[in-house]
Design a protein that fits this description.
It is a multi-pass membrane protein. It holds the Pfam family Plug. It is found in: Cell outer membrane. Its main location: membrane. The chain is mainly β. It has one domain: Maltoporin, Chain A, CATH 2.40.170. About 5% of the residues lie in helices and about 55% in strands. The strands form eight sheets. It has a 22-stranded antiparallel barrel. A hairpin with a 2-residue loop joins strand 4 (about 85-95) and strand 5 (about 95-100). The radius of gyration is 25 Å and the shape is globular.
């Protein structure tokens, strides 16, 4: 079925590609056609919810253009984020990544695998939330778009809930597509490449401006297939990488059987397919309507849900979305819906498949009163998940019900300029009413910037944001019969995790060839959700262990500095060097010392300690070097580094040696060489992870080696 969909998708794409190419007028856009200052003045919307120069943005933020992503050779959107300061990007298996803004991951430490997922960063496509509400985070492989769709990626570092609502806790990643970018010209973009490890990647985007100059239509599609570096798994029982047949359940000591569904496709890392369509109508200069729709089908083998055998597992997703946006003078309207089915633990002995539907509505209006800009906004979010259609007699689901999470929020942002526009004051506040928990939360953002002249700007920020509830946290109702019955129970009264931040920053154009960006931040994260056995008792049917979700007393305090230096010594060379130094201190961490004793019915024991969270590397960053020795030849090299990390898994409660690992420093070097053999057509060779050395970057996941590719880029 998957391969048939690929064939149909490509036939459709190729025909549209050919049709659109006939009328395009623009050739390939090149990074070297822009000065360093122009690159730093690229427009950004996400930092303040209004279009402005990225140099003037009031928050710590970075824009990476689609041209640079293609030039860099990044094979996925996640990998492209290694080009952005303040990003921690670990590869779990070939093409599957763990992405965090500044860190605060795996809290509390020493818990189950699903606590490693980044639930603190809001990811959007053209302002449409693609956040996952099962257990938080983003299913990156389930994004319907490909690299050819990307106009730019805007990354905002720091709490941003006052602008975007819950889950914009550590930051926001907004992927702006060519469909969502106002462009009067027709265009065709394609990126196709293949290489070792069974890797085939292709994406196409074709936009056509019709003759009346009021209507634009577009179509895009993407495919990706990848194999793992090897077919072994880290075995929790032995502490070694072994074949599937030798895996042992660390919870009960039973060896996996051939009849078990776990790890159904041992060699597979990722398979995905997406197709998108777009139409835009400019009624007049003040009114326009955009409609986007798309479909995706994906499966990946990555770290997400606990399976007791190894850190990796399969998850699948199939979904369809509709996104309608309209601008009527100062009024912005966005309404979107997404429906689909996800299996978060394919092959498990329980029902892990759920139907879901998400609805989002955003309304905001901007008006000017002299130097004061006001932007009131209303937002409604609703998500419904159900495993009922898949539950049969003698089967067990995670919720065994249809459940709903929703919230509506009102916000107001005021933006005031004075002293001849040198001083800028921004204040934003938002009230959100949630159905789970049944409570109201207030978030805020206070910002001041001072622009000494066109070359130097300083800023100060104080902000607070919160996460939302998730379905598993809130509605888990999982019960397994055995010698000892096990119950997983959700909690609808959980306090929402929150983050407070204070930050100071500086941007400076030190010369025409040198630009510096520095940000110093301090965050405090509280109300982390924990999941532990809290009761062990006898019933008429026998002993029962009850696991519950609750708010821990853990407090995570992070202090750090991120620096980025952009340098263009000539019109043939562009460089960027960036890095983050940070330290994260944990207070009131209940470190699990012993596990459950089923014979004495004793619960785990804990030792409350204060310690450093070494899961977040103390230093991470990178360097890019873009060189054009000839007009038609360009070479882009990128270097990414993470210092030593420490990962503690739930397994540590029964075996500290087998459940903890020190991850050696990760160093990756990637190089892409491109040659334009015809106008708008480039052939290239691409090498990724050249210095990775087949090392585990995540903790108990795959050992990642080098990836070699060759392909063609088209930009007409």
């Amino acid at each position: 079925m998957f391969k048939s969909l690929i064939r149909i998708n490509f036939l459709f794409l190729i025909s549209f590609f050919t049709m659109s190419a006939q009328d395009t007028e623009e050739g390939d856009r090149d990074l070297f056609d822009m000065s360093l200052e122009e690159l730093m003045e690229v427009e950004i919307y996400s930092a303040s919810k209004k279009a402005e120069s990225s140099f003037d943005a009031p928050l710590s933020s970075t824009v990476i253009t689609g041209e640079e992503i293609i030039a860099s050779g990044a094979t996925t959107i996640e990998e492209a984020l290694r080009l952005v300061p303040g990003m921690i990007v670990r590869e779990e298996s070939n093409g599957n990544y763990d992405v965090h803004v500044r860190g605060n991951e795996s809290l509390p430490p020493g818990n189950f695998t699903f606590f490693t997922e980044n639930s603190l960063t809001l990811v959007m496509i053209d302002g449409r939330r693609v956040y996952n509400y099962i257990n938080g985070g983003t299913f990156w492989e389930a994004l319907p778009i490909g690299l050819a769709d990307v106009e730019r990626i805007e990354v905002v570092r720091g709490p941003s809930s006052p602008l975007y609502g819950p889950n914009a806790v550590s930051g926001v990643i907004n992927i702006i597509t060519k469909q969502g970018f106002s462009n009067s010209e027709s265009s065709v973009t394609a990126n196709v490449q293949g290489g070792n490890k069974g890797t085939v990647i292709g994406s196409f985007n074709a936009l056509k401006r019709l003759k009346n100059d009021k209507v634009s239509i577009g179509l895009s599609g993407n495919i990706e297939t990848r194999d793992r570096d090897h077919e072994e798994y880290y075995n929790w029982w032995t502490g070694e990488y072994t074949p599937r047949s030798e895996l042992v359940n660390y919870n009960n000591g039973n060896q996996i059987e051939d009849s078990y569904g776990w790890f159904e496709e041992v060699e597979m890392a990722k398979e995905r397919l997406g197709v998108n369509a777009f139409i835009s109508y400019d009624i007049n200069k003040d009114v326009n309507i955009d409609l986007k729709t798309g479909y995706q089908n994906s499966v990946s083998q990555s770290a997400f849900f606990e399976n007791f055998y190894s850190v990796l597992g399969d998850r699948t997703s199939e979904s369809f979305y509709i996104d309608l946006t309209s601008k009527i003078k100062g009024l912005n309207i966005q309404a979107s819906t997404e429906s689909g089915v996800q299996d978060i633990a394919r092959g498990s002995g329980f029902i892990s498949t759920m139907d879901y539907n998400k609805i989002d509505l955003n309304l905001d209006y901007s008006f000017e009163l002299g130097n004061l800009s006001l932007q009131p906004a209303f937002n409604y979010q609703q998500a419904t998940y159900s495993d009922v259609p898949y539950i049969e007699p003698n089967t067990i689901g995670l919720m065994n019900a249809e459940q709903q999470l929703s919230n509506y929020g009102f916000s107001l942002k005021a933006d005031y300029k004075l002293l001849n526009d040198k001083l800028r004051l921004v204040a934003a506040g938002r009230l959100d009413k949630y159905n789970v928990p049944d409570d109201v939360y207030f978030t805020y953002q206070f910002i001041s910037t001072y622009k000494f002249n066109e070359n130097h700007l300083i800023r100060a920020v104080a902000s607070k944001s919160n996460r939302s509830s998730f379905f598993i946290d809130s509605y888990a109702d999982y019960y397994v019969d055995g010698q000892v019955d096990v119950a997983y129970v959700g909690n609808r009264e959980l306090l929402l995790p929150t983050m407070n931040m204070v930050e100071f920053g500086y941007r400076g154009k030190l010369s025409e060839k040198l630009i510096l960006d520095v940000e110093a931040f301090r965050t405090v994260f509280e109300n982390a959700v924990d999941f532990q056995p809290t009761e062990f008792y006898n019933s008429a049917e026998g002993p029962i262990i009850e696991f519950n979700y609750f708010n821990s007393d853990l407090i995570s305090t992070q202090s750090g500095v991120t620096t980025a230096l952009n340098f263009a010594p000539s019109d043939k060379i562009q460089m960027r060097v960036f890095g983050t130094v940070q330290k994260t201190e944990l207070e009131n961490y209940d470190k699990k010392e012993t596990g459950i004793n089923p014979f004495t019915m004793e619960l785990p024991t804990y030792n409350r300690v204060d310690q450093e969270n070494k899961r977040t590397p103390n230093f991470y960053g990178g360097m890019t070097f873009n060189y054009r020795p000839l007009d038609k030849l360009s070479i882009y090299s990128s270097f990414y580094y993470m210092s030593e990390q420490f990962y503690r898994h739930e397994r540590a409660s029964t075996s500290e040696q087998l459940g903890t690992t020190t991850i050696d420093p990760v160093t990756t070097l990637s190089i892409k060489a491109s040659y334009e053999f015809a106008k708008g057509f480039k052939g290239f060779v691409n090498a990724r992870n050249l210095l990775a050395g087949e090392k585990d970057q995540f903790g108990f996941a795959d050992r990642i080696g080098a990836l070699y590719l060759a392909g063609i880029n088209v930009n007409l």
